[in-house]
Write a structure and sequence with these properties.
two-stranded antiparallel ribbon; 5% strand; 3 domains; four-stranded mixed sheet
């Protein structure tokens, strides 16, 4: 929930405070990051590995052999498309010559050609020039190199691709024109004209551009063939060094020997760790800033998330650095449990994933670790939609241990394919991990009190009508207490159907009028037919007593250490609306007086969460329903529309993230529930005296 005082702050303040907090967190995470040591090995291709089990100490590429590189480079050089310059003027010039010859030389054969012959020749020339004509020697070279395509440069800059099979030489262009002539043209007559005299090469080989393209293509040839990840298995003692393993070992040797001095290596390692931690933490920062602005707006919320992440990373570091225990004894699922308790599921999963990725660089098998932990995180959040009972933690612990076991077993069978290689002691760590999650209940209480949060567990305890304060409420102001129960019933269903927090609304409804226990008989619902002590008072004095129940409620809530979100319900359930009974009465009696409206208005503030808005609607609807002369369905629906529309017109919900669609849904829920509450009942017949 958002603190109304924090809303008024400079919006840049949370940005700077949280930014500094994230920078500090990155520095601490880097301190927890592991360091690497250099080492050497002796090995031969096809011979047994004489050393102990070897896994990759860091990520490194697998370099290709010289023979493989040469073969790949030769293939790239041969298949790189050659560049040819396209002479666009050539077509115009030759066709122009053709047309000019026909018009000038009337004794030539061309002059005797009908228009159909002329049109066909011109069209055929345009076609072959558009496809491109190359020199015979260039065509032979392209075929020898087995090139499928060439790159054509037009206008010095535009480049397009053309298939070699679509190109012509002068000879093939002439043959194409003759062989593709329409049937109604006389081939011999067509051949009698010197068509091949207008066929010239319009594609010129661009040697410089082609060689440059070939060099660039060769530069793109990767020197590596895959990657070996840190912690990945390379070879075990006694195994034969295969060709691929030999290449991997050569790559590892190359990487190790190419590394710089220890001092410089430490510096580069530090830079890499800062970049890694900084990038992952930046993702979390942006997530909160862009998608959870309500959480981001409160420094204590962000501080809690960072602390939870640092706690779990510290536990992982201490376990790996100072014990021989498995990393799987560390209860990483504690983070999504704690974050989900006070925030939403998506935030819990996002924080868990970031923490797991940061911790994965501490472990020997990062992929296995990430696979298990993310799966466990999803299982945890899925089984903990709303934690309202302590027994749910036991269920979560069992689900977490079972998920660990299933995922570890399946991963081992896939990677090793041998049941004998399964480390059965790991399952004991999973069981201990699940038991450690039971401490989350105590941590929830500690963090709840430390950071001022409000968990569902606490809401369940506070909504217990047998609690001392609510018992006092029901005895001192029974009418108001019954009103609060009815408001809670209305508001709870409305909250559930509009993606609000039903448990929070219910608890807030039970306490929203708690201030009326100070002077319960001043409120009509508690008078039970007695004389109203406010009836004879001046309106300005009477309205102060009515309005004062909000301030008295805040005092009682603070005295009994009720959480601030519940105090917010007490303060906002009337917003800044007027006590209309006394306001209207006073105005009718003093029509010409300039009335101080603030004296008849509640101090507010206005609701600023969806839960508060729902409570304000439900409170007004329930109170108004008691004054209806008749409880027909039409009367109840009209009342609901009138009251909520009036609240909207007054601007009571302008600070609330609520839509008109939500409001319409809330109206329909209130109408249905009121109709069910005030439905008519049949009259029971009386028993005859006889």
């Amino acid at each position: 929930m958002i603190d109304k005082d924090e809303i008024k702050k400079d919006p840049r303040l949370p940005l700077w405070l949280n930014g500094g907090l994230f920078v500090l967190a990155i520095a601490l995470i880097v301190q927890l990051s592991p360091s690497e040591d250099m080492f050497k090995f002796y090995y031969r291709n096809g011979k047994p590995w004489q050393h102990e089990f070897l896994s990759a100490p860091f990520d490194f590429p697998i370099y290709k052999s010289e023979a493989a590189l040469k073969k790949e480079r030769d293939s790239v050089a041969k298949n790189t498309a050659s560049y040819y310059f396209f002479n666009e003027k050539m077509q115009e010039e030759e066709i122009g010559k053709f047309n000019a010859t026909i018009g000038a030389d009337y004794d030539s054969v061309a002059a005797e050609l009908p228009d159909l012959y002329k049109k066909y020749v011109v069209a055929a020339l345009e076609y072959v020039y558009k496809k491109g004509i190359v020199a015979p020697a260039e065509m032979e070279r392209l075929k020898e190199d087995k090139q499928q395509e060439i790159s054509i440069i037009k206008n010095q800059v535009q480049t397009s691709q053309a298939k070699v099979g679509d190109l012509f030489t002068g000879k093939t262009a002439y043959e194409y024109i003759i062989n593709h002539a329409p049937d109604f043209l006389d081939i011999q007559k067509l051949k009698s004209y010197d068509i091949d005299g207008y066929l010239r090469e319009n594609l010129t080989y661009d040697r410089k551009k082609s060689e440059q393209a070939r060099e660039e293509a060769l530069k793109k040839v990767s020197l590596t063939a895959g990657m070996v990840q840190a912690g990945e298995r390379i070879i075990d003692k006694g195994e034969i060094v295969s060709e691929r393993t030999f290449q991997i070992l050569n790559s590892l040797k190359h990487e190790t020997e190419s590394r710089v001095s220890v001092g410089e290596k430490h510096y580069l390692l530090l830079v890499g760790q800062i970049l890694l931690a900084g990038t992952l933490m930046l993702m979390l920062f942006l997530y909160l800033y862009l998608f959870r602005p309500q959480t981001f707006a409160k420094f204590r919320h962000v501080l809690f998330i960072i602390i939870m992440m640092l706690i779990i990373l510290t536990l992982a570091y201490l376990t790996l650095e100072y014990t021989k225990l498995s990393i799987y004894i560390v209860p990483f699922a504690l983070v999504p449990i704690m974050v989900r308790t006070f925030f939403d599921s998506r935030t819990a999963l996002f924080v868990h994933i970031i923490g797991v990725l940061l911790a994965s660089f501490m472990v020997a098998s990062p992929f296995e670790f990430v696979l298990l932990q993310i799966t466990v995180g999803m299982a945890t959040i899925s089984s903990l939609k709303d934690m309202t009972q302590r027994s749910q933690l036991m269920q979560v612990a069992i689900i977490v241990a079972a998920t660990y076991a299933v995922m570890f077993l399946s991963y081992t069978l896939i990677t090793d394919g041998n049941v004998a290689k399964i480390n059965w002691w790991t399952f004991l760590y999973f069981a201990v991990n699940g038991l450690l999650l039971l401490f989350a209940y105590g941590l929830i209480y500690i963090f709840e009190k430390t950071f001022g949060f409000l968990s569902n567990v606490t809401l369940v305890e506070l909504s217990n009508v047998n609690s001392p304060l609510l018992m006092q409420f029901s005895e001192t102001a029974p009418g108001t207490f019954q009103h609060s129960l009815q408001v809670a019933s209305l508001a709870t269903e409305a909250a559930a159907k509009t993606n609000a927090n039903p448990l929070l609304v219910r608890t807030g409804a039970l306490y929203h009028d708690i201030g009326k226990i100070v002077n319960p008989m001043d409120f009509i619902e508690n008078q039970q037919g007695r004389v109203n002590p406010l009836a004879e008072m001046p309106e300005k004095e009477a309205v102060k007593i009515i309005i004062n129940h909000v301030a008295e409620g805040v005092k009682i809530a603070q005295k009994h250490n009720l959480p601030k979100p519940l105090i917010d319900f007490i303060q906002t359930h009337h917003a800044k609306s007027k006590a209309k009974y006394f306001y209207n009465k006073y105005r009718n009696e003093h029509p010409n007086e300039d009335i101080d409206e603030a004296a008849f208005s509640y101090p507010g503030p206005k609701p600023f969460t969806r839960e508060m808005a729902i409570l304000m609607m439900a409170d007004a609807i329930e109170a108004a329903s008691r004054s209806l002369p008749e409880y027909t369905e039409e009367a109840l629906e009209t009342m609901v529309e009138k009251i909520i529309d009036a609240q909207i017109a007054e601007g009571s919900f302008k600070d609330v993230p609520i839509t008109f669609q939500h409001i319409e849904k809330i109206k329909n829920i209130f109408k249905r529930k009121l109709v069910n509450i005030y439905h008519s009942r049949i009259k029971y017949p009386e028993l005859n005296k006889k």
